Amino acid sequence: KNEVEQSPQNLTAQEGEFITINCSYSVGISALHWLQQHPGGGIVSLFMLSSGKKKHGRLIATINIQEKHSSLHITASHPRDSAVYICAVAGGGADGLTFGKGTHLIIQP
Amino acid sequence: NAGVTQTPKFQVLKTGQSMTLQCAQDMNHEYMSWYRQDPGMGLRLIHYSVGAGITDQGEVPNGYNVSRSTTEDFPLRLLSAAPSQTSVYFCASSYTGRSNSPLHFGNGTRLTVT
Predict the structure, then answer these.
(1) What is the pLDDT of chain B when averaged over all its residues?
(2) I need a labelling partner for B80 at 20 to 30 A (CA). Which of A9, A61, B41, B64 fits?
């Protein structure tokens, strides 16, 4: 079973700061997902990547397959970025994803 | 497009009662799944389906049943609720269920079993 570790567990930052959230996993994967869960509970898919880097607005996700590591970056952070960010890895089969416990991010104005 | 619709949003049950959590998607997705989310733990897969008529167990299937009679619907049944099933439940779907297919989540059902 893949072990997925996220760091930090909690992060409080000031508006405008550059944010990095890390995800490491123990077994080779076919894809990695970054999800965002807002207070109130809804979960939204941010990125799915299997190599390299993806960018969407102020969000950037990178993955290093050899090192079994991914990072999610937020540039020019804003209070509306406050949420729980969840990393999940896919083994390539139809048996679902293995999820990290999430990183609780608070951006203060 | 409604996406993934879960009902109810909140439910309180007494131990031993049964209920069904509903999940429907209108995106013609083959893959549907149920997860539970508990404090301090990552989301855990309960059951999943790769198409109508096909279901399989995930990591924590005990106490739950599912069926997939249509592509759109994937209900989760609790036959005899227990306090250990107090959790937030999410239904999710994706086009194929393979690694190159993003997941779409419902808004969750918060279940309390007393």
Answers:
(1) 93
(2) B41
Q: ∠B46-A38-A80 over CA atoms, to 5°?
A: 160
Is residue B1 over pLDDT 70?
no
**B102 to A48: CB separation less than 8 angstroms, yes or no:** yes
Q: Chain A within 8 Å of B95 (Cβ-Cβ)?
A: no
Contact A48, A108 (CB under 8 A): no
Q: Which distant-in-sequence residues (6+ apart) come within 8 Å of B10 by Cβ?
A: B109, B110, B111
Residue B7 identity (one-letter amino acid): T
B55, B42 contact by CB (below 8 A): no
**pLDDT, average across residues B84-94:** 96
d(CA B21, CA B11): 9
Residues of chain A with pLDDT under 70: 92-95
Nearest C-alpha neighbor of B108 from the set B95, B92, B94: B92
Q: How many residues does chain B have?
A: 114
Enumerate helices (H) and strands (E) in chain B, giving the number of each: 0, 11
Q: Judging by beta carbons within 10 Å of its beta carbon (0-12, 13-18, 19+), is residue A31 exposed, middle or buried?
A: buried
Residue A5 structure tokens: 């570790």
CB atoms within 10 A of CB B22: 15
Reading the block at residue B83, the tokens are: 């306090």
Q: Which of A29, A42, A95 sits opposite B58 (nearest CB)?
A: A95
Beta-carbon contacts of B34 under 8 Å, excluding residues fewer than 6 positions away, are B21, B23, B45, B46, B47, B48, B58, B64, B66, B74, B76, B89, B90, B91, B92
